[in-house]
């Protein structure tokens, strides 16, 4: 099995009310150096490897995992290092 | 008129929708149709109720959009049958690409449940012709993800083609242009966040939602029943 990490974030320019709330809380705690916070989603998929595995992950993101109208996604494939 | 109220796992306004249709229109048949049904071809109008389909996991409406019934809902919508999605139903219509745009968390991150003022922006649709343009309605809202977002081009198109049917009279949740309800290009698909099915009796606060359902019924009657 291979781990695929999918990260979903709001697109640039889309107001992120959750991020703003977190940023304000950090600032209230004295962490004034934090200028902006973005809140997104992380999904870990355990998938069986195959020749078109990445293309299928891409499809999953487009179809269901992200909403391309307001969200961007990136993913990275974590392969076990062979010893 | 045969009306279908689609029931998803997590729908909770299905019975209110059923009540609105059975008690306030002359629809011959109103069925609660399970999300596993393959076809809704037999119905004249389709209603997607509010609630929390599939627990709103991942995103509101994202999973419901792939329910077996949705394929047929999309086909019937494209044929021009009236399809109304309220609240979670609206979110499902967005996810299904029957309407443009997307929903985000409310601007203040709060779930809101209260009655708000809603403006009728377009009284020429099959859902609204019993209203007057510019009329102000009292309709309840109940949502956490009602902050409608679309890009500027989409907003301009919506505006230019009178597809913004309802707006909030004030900034309720941060929605682009205070949008509360929009239609598709053909005008037969309406998505709206306020709940007209909860505004059917003055005893319960407002009856301003009634005319939406009577509009749909009358539209069907006027286009399908030959008067002698």
TrEMBL record, chain A:
UniProt catalytic activity: N(2)-formyl-N(1)-(5-phospho-beta-D-ribosyl)glycinamide + L-glutamine + ATP + H2O = 2-formamido-N(1)-(5-O-phospho-beta-D-ribosyl)acetamidine + L-glutamate + ADP + phosphate + H(+)
Keyword RNA-binding appears in the UniProt entry: no
Keywords: ATP-binding, Cytoplasm, Ligase, Nucleotide-binding, Purine biosynthesis
One Gene Ontology term of the molecular function aspect: ATP binding
Annotated GO CC locations: cytoplasm
Pathway, per record: Purine metabolism; IMP biosynthesis via de novo pathway; 5-amino-1-(5-phospho-D-ribosyl)imidazole from N(2)-formyl-N(1)-(5-phospho-D-ribosyl)glycinamide: step 1/2
Family: Belongs to the PurS family.
Complexes and interactors: Part of the FGAM synthase complex composed of 1 PurL, 1 PurQ and 2 PurS subunits.
HAMAP family: PurS (MF_01926)
Protein's UniProt name: Phosphoribosylformylglycinamidine synthase subunit PurS
Name of the gene this protein is made from: purS
UniProtKB/TrEMBL annotation, chain B:
One GO cellular component term noted in the UniProt record for this chain: cytoplasm
Keyword line: ATP-binding, Cytoplasm, Glutamine amidotransferase, Hydrolase, Ligase, Nucleotide-binding, Purine biosynthesis
GO MF annotation, one: phosphoribosylformylglycinamidine synthase activity
Name of a matching Pfam family: GATase_5
UniProt catalytic activity: L-glutamine + H2O = L-glutamate + NH4(+); N(2)-formyl-N(1)-(5-phospho-beta-D-ribosyl)glycinamide + L-glutamine + ATP + H2O = 2-formamido-N(1)-(5-O-phospho-beta-D-ribosyl)acetamidine + L-glutamate + ADP + phosphate + H(+)
Single GO biological process annotation from the record: 'de novo' IMP biosynthetic process
EC number: 6.3.5.3, 3.5.1.2
Protein's cellular compartments: Cytoplasm
Pathway: Purine metabolism; IMP biosynthesis via de novo pathway; 5-amino-1-(5-phospho-D-ribosyl)imidazole from N(2)-formyl-N(1)-(5-phospho-D-ribosyl)glycinamide: step 1/2
Main location: cytoplasm
Active site residues per record: 87 (nucleophile), 195, 197
Coiled coil: none
Known function: Part of the phosphoribosylformylglycinamidine synthase complex involved in the purines biosynthetic pathway. Catalyzes the ATP-dependent conversion of formylglycinamide ribonucleotide (FGAR) and glutamine to yield formylglycinamidine ribonucleotide (FGAM) and glutamate. The FGAM synthase complex is composed of three subunits. PurQ produces an ammonia molecule by converting glutamine to glutamate. PurL transfers the ammonia molecule to FGAR to form FGAM in an ATP-dependent manner.
Quaternary context: Part of the FGAM synthase complex composed of 1 PurL, 1 PurQ and 2 PurS subunits.
Protein name listed in UniProt: Phosphoribosylformylglycinamidine synthase subunit PurQ
The organism's taxonomic lineage, starting at the top: Bacteria, Bacillati, Bacillota, Bacilli, Bacillales
